[in-house]
């Protein structure tokens, strides 16, 4: 029996509608007894209900309160008129608009996030002024990693929201939060002005960025994939990583320009703030574009049949835990390889290769432009050979090229450094493109946003956010500039095992997913 969702008209009424009795399976309708939203204890549930289920229910209830508070602003689960529209019937003109809007919004989101990584050296001096530059850099990267701890929380929150009210409005919220947090970093006083509160406030704002990023990438992938033709999903989905690589390239351009045209004193005083302040106008542009989007046909079909998941988190963990673990193992390599060459290598080229700050940023910029151009080709390759073959290619390639890549990057030669970073970029692109497709193909429509966001963000938290920190720590502990390469090889082996446990999904229809029940995608692991 599908349980009713108690829609309320005012935020004040939302808190009184969420009681333990209101969401029991035998509750008759939305007209439930009222009480305090969180004022209950696990003993009020059935004896057979586990403590985990109890706290999952509490978490989901909090999300529902947020949805009810948002309700007065007309952000409701869509109930479209009857239609026979399917993913395969979306016209080319609409697909172009979807690509542009989703990609530009994702670009804005990740430009804001990337700026911090490229300005790590300058930020270390402004917020962690110690006598040891390596210690200051470690603290800066530690803040980078802490922000990733909030990505799974953001993935759960925005994932459940996206499965409840739709992809469109949820993606508008993520970009608004990211732009606001990034602008605040640009306005933040330094350690010299307010002392220890400066790094504390920086950490808090970075956590807000991480929370926002948790709902971005998986949602953008789902939005594009739910519009794309069945035989070209990886190609269309590749424009999400294209926009991500382009965002990092744009951040590198801005950082390179500042390093080249500003003195060290000017850069430390005010120059580092400029890229963060750009976030405000960019965020407004992205918000406008996303607000003009239509909801995806796949989600409209679910909403039309009144089959929107009542408990997306609970249903996801109950029915798709194995698939999430297998896919998460592969996404761990996507995360590590991505942040190795987009964020960490800008620092590695300076520390191990002896390149200047401006030259290292130029190398990163060239590699990022190369990666962005390669993404559509990788998408076409994946559509042709399948997802499993693409995953195997990516894992084996990274195992083979990682040592030559690190050796050339540490050689001190400008040309060799470019080639070394490009070698790593090829594997990272293959991983990123096939991940964008698998995030949507592995899970059913009604829980797709939640399942994919949790899977993606858990992997990125454990292996992406810690990549610069782990690489810096490994080098400091072993004294070898090649030690991060061994770490990447170990993760590639884990990714190969997880990826090969997944079935081939390139030819399935996303509409093969039953929307009235909680069955997995056709051919996927339940």
UniProtKB/TrEMBL annotation:
<comment type="similarity">
    <text>Belongs to the major facilitator superfamily. Metabolite:H+ Symporter (MHS) family (TC 2.A.1.6) family.</text>
</comment>
<dbReference type="Pfam" id="PF07690">
    <property type="entry name" value="MFS_1"/>
</dbReference>
<feature type="transmembrane region" description="Helical">
    <location>
        <begin position="200"/>
        <end position="224"/>
    </location>
</feature>
<keyword id="KW-1133">Transmembrane helix</keyword>
<feature type="transmembrane region" description="Helical">
    <location>
        <begin position="389"/>
        <end position="408"/>
    </location>
</feature>
<protein>
    <submittedName>
        <fullName>Major facilitator family transporter</fullName>
    </submittedName>
</protein>
<feature type="transmembrane region" description="Helical">
    <location>
        <begin position="414"/>
        <end position="439"/>
    </location>
</feature>
<feature type="transmembrane region" description="Helical">
    <location>
        <begin position="485"/>
        <end position="502"/>
    </location>
</feature>
<feature type="transmembrane region" description="Helical">
    <location>
        <begin position="140"/>
        <end position="161"/>
    </location>
</feature>
<dbReference type="InterPro" id="IPR051084">
    <property type="entry name" value="H+-coupled_symporters"/>
</dbReference>
<feature type="transmembrane region" description="Helical">
    <location>
        <begin position="236"/>
        <end position="258"/>
    </location>
</feature>
<feature type="transmembrane region" description="Helical">
    <location>
        <begin position="321"/>
        <end position="341"/>
    </location>
</feature>
<feature type="transmembrane region" description="Helical">
    <location>
        <begin position="361"/>
        <end position="382"/>
    </location>
</feature>
<keyword id="KW-0769">Symport</keyword>
<feature type="transmembrane region" description="Helical">
    <location>
        <begin position="270"/>
        <end position="289"/>
    </location>
</feature>
<dbReference type="GO" id="GO:0015293">
    <property type="term" value="F:symporter activity"/>
</dbReference>
<dbReference type="InterPro" id="IPR005829">
    <property type="entry name" value="Sugar_transporter_CS"/>
</dbReference>
<dbReference type="InterPro" id="IPR020846">
    <property type="entry name" value="MFS_dom"/>
</dbReference>
<feature type="transmembrane region" description="Helical">
    <location>
        <begin position="173"/>
        <end position="194"/>
    </location>
</feature>
<dbReference type="InterPro" id="IPR011701">
    <property type="entry name" value="MFS"/>
</dbReference>
<dbReference type="InterPro" id="IPR036259">
    <property type="entry name" value="MFS_trans_sf"/>
</dbReference>
<keyword id="KW-0812">Transmembrane</keyword>
<dbReference type="GO" id="GO:0005886">
    <property type="term" value="C:plasma membrane"/>
</dbReference>
<keyword id="KW-0472">Membrane</keyword>
<keyword id="KW-1003">Cell membrane</keyword>
<feature type="transmembrane region" description="Helical">
    <location>
        <begin position="460"/>
        <end position="479"/>
    </location>
</feature>
<keyword id="KW-0813">Transport</keyword>
<feature type="domain" description="Major facilitator superfamily (MFS) profile">
    <location>
        <begin position="98"/>
        <end position="507"/>
    </location>
</feature>
<feature type="transmembrane region" description="Helical">
    <location>
        <begin position="107"/>
        <end position="128"/>
    </location>
</feature>
């Amino acid at each position: 029996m599908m349980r009713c969702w108690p829609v309320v008209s005012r935020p004040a009424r939302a808190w009184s509608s969420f009681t333990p009795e209101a969401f029991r399976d035998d509750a008759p309708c939305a007209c439930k007894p009222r009480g305090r939203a969180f004022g209950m204890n696990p003993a009020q549930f059935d004896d057979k209900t586990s403590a985990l289920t109890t706290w999952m229910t509490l978490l989901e209830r909090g999300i529902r309160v947020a949805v009810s508070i948002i309700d007065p602003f007309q952000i409701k689960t869509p109930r479209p008129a009857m239609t026979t529209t399917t993913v395969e019937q979306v016209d080319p003109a609409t697909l172009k608009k979807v690509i542009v809007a989703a990609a530009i919004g994702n670009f804005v989101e990740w430009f804001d996030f990337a700026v911090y990584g490229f300005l790590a050296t300058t930020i270390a001096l402004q917020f962690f002024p110690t006598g040891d530059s390596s210690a200051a850099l470690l603290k800066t990267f530690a803040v980078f990693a802490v922000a990733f701890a909030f990505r799974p929380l953001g993935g759960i929150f925005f994932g459940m929201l996206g499965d409840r009210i739709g992809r469109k409005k949820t993606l508008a919220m993520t970009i608004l939060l990211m732009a606001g947090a990034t602008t605040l970093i640009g306005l933040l006083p330094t350690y010299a002005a307010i002392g220890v509160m400066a790094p504390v406030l920086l950490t808090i704002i970075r956590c807000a960025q991480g929370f926002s990023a948790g709902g971005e990438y998986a949602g953008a992938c789902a939005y594009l994939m739910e519009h794309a033709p069945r035989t070209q999903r990886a190609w269309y989905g590749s424009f999400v990583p294209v926009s991500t690589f382009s965002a990092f390239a744009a951040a590198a351009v801005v950082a390179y320009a500042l390093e080249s045209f500003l003195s060290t004193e000017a850069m430390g005083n005010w120059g580092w703030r400029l890229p963060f302040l750009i976030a405000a106008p960019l965020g407004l542009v992205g918000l406008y574009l996303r607000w003009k989007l239509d909801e995806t046909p796949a989600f409209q079909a679910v909403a039309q049949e009144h089959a929107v998941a009542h408990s997306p988190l609970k249903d996801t963990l109950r029915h798709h835990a194995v698939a999430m673990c297998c896919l998460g193992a592969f996404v761990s390599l996507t995360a590590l390889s991505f942040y190795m060459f987009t964020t960490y290598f800008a620092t590695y080229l300076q520390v191990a290769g002896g390149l200047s700050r401006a030259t290292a940023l130029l190398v990163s910029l060239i590699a990022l432009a190369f990666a962005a151009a390669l993404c559509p080709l990788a998408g076409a390759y994946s559509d042709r050979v399948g997802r499993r073959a693409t995953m195997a290619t990516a894992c084996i390639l990274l195992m083979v090229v990682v040592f030559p890549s690190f050796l050339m990057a540490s050689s001190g030669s400008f040309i060799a450094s470019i080639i070394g970073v490009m070698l790593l970029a090829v594997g990272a692109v293959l991983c990123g493109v096939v991940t964008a497709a698998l995030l949507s193909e592995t899970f059913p429509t009604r829980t797709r946003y939640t399942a994919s966001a949790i899977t993606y963000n858990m992997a990125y938290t454990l292996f992406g956010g810690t990549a610069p920190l782990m690489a810096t720590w490994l080098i400091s502990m072993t004294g070898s500039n090649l030690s991060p390469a061994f770490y990447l090889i170990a993760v590639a082996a884990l990714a190969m095992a997880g990826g090969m446990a997944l079935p081939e999904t390139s030819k399935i229809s996303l509409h093969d997913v039953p929307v009235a029940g909680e069955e997995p995608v056709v051919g996927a692991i339940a």
